[in-house]
Amino acid sequence: MLFTLTTTHQPATDLGFLLHKHPGKVQTFEVAAGTAHVFYPQAEEHQCTVGLLLELDPIELVRRGRENTAFSLGRYVNDRPYVASSMLAVALGKVFRTALGGRCEAKPELAATPLPLQVHLPAVPCHGPADLVARLFEPLGWTVDARPIPMTGWGDSPYVDLRLTGTLRLAEALNHLYVLLPVLDNVKHYWVAEDEVEKLLRAGADWLAGHPERELVSRRYLRHRRGLVDAALTRLAEAEDTDPEALDNALDAAVITETPAREPLAATRRDTILALLKEIGARQVVDLGCGGGALLRGLLADLHFTRVLGVDVSAQALAKAERGLNLDRMSEHVAARLTLRQSALTYVDAGLRGFDAAVLMEVVEHVDPPRLPALARAVFGAAQPASVLVTTPNVEYNVRFPDLPAGEFRHPDHRFEWTRAEFRDWAQDIAQRYGYLVEFRPVGPEDPEVGPPTQLALFRRTEVAR
Known about the structure:
single chain, alpha/beta, c-terminal autoproteolytic domain of nucleoporin nup98, Rossmann fold, seven-stranded antiparallel sheet, seven-stranded mixed sheet, 19 helices, 22% strand, RNA-mediated gene silencing
């Protein structure tokens, strides 16, 4: 298993300072189930290349239970000694630990400087779609050359010869590889425990929160352990710099506005919800997944609503909502009606009980389908508001958006988008399970063929409805 990293920054031999490995020496390190050798095949002023050769002992792999057991010969025939996997990531972490941390006492300014870098990994397992490597590395500033390795007579190869080129700080480059190599492999050779969340967040501190594939990265890095993935994503949401309003408004106005005269769908959605809340007589309202506070602003502007609670998992979103609502300049009378609360919607929170109505405006489609039952238990089963309003995109209407590519969701963070029938099935099951009646209403102009752009379900608890 071979990894090489090359720079043309001059003098290129400064790479030795950054890695704390002298270009004139070969160094050997004992790692789990093998030995790592660090050497420099080229060390000249104009170009310097460092190599890490990881030799794994196949017998030791079997002894430690790290062989491939997916098929009967897995204990004897497997790819682990030859491909870049979590074993290489661990070796990088041990051998280049100081460089991963971005520290270089001899040349601190160089450690903070983006350098021209080239990475070569001759055999990388890539379990997933053909463009997975590009989806993971290109948003981080890498130019990706991933060439499939042919396997004559064995069908499509899951391995690529990977070359990455970019101008990045050395610590950034190493941390990208430390996280993303196990993600590409979708396997780890050791037990994933709670401390893996800290490793992921530490290595991804400067880039993971803003990565478009952050959830896929988190799931695969944490071996799909739901509790750990949820913890990581919650922490990432708190650190995220992107506008949380983007998570509530599924489409930009440029996509959803079909004519200049038409009201943006986000505004139509808010106005519909506000009118419906007054229609059912709700005065105490909780906005679940409030984001930047778009609905909260409308609720506070109407004195009919006497108590307003905004809830979001992201502390960053709540801070932006506070700023956007000018909470520090509100009158005491208005501010007394508003509370902002950080809470995850998939966990029971006693502070959400006692409201006339709860609103989930463009929220459910951001939840992984396996977590929807937990959300239903927390909202309908535990909080038990008298009424619940849920809006979500109608995927059938997507064909009416000329700028939305066929088969694409309206927002990259959407986990799914439902047809009208799928939404009705989900809502009716929830209503029956938790003692609610449900009715459906359109939001936005209703197309005779594909229905409205947004669909709304109004749940009312049966004893209240009677």
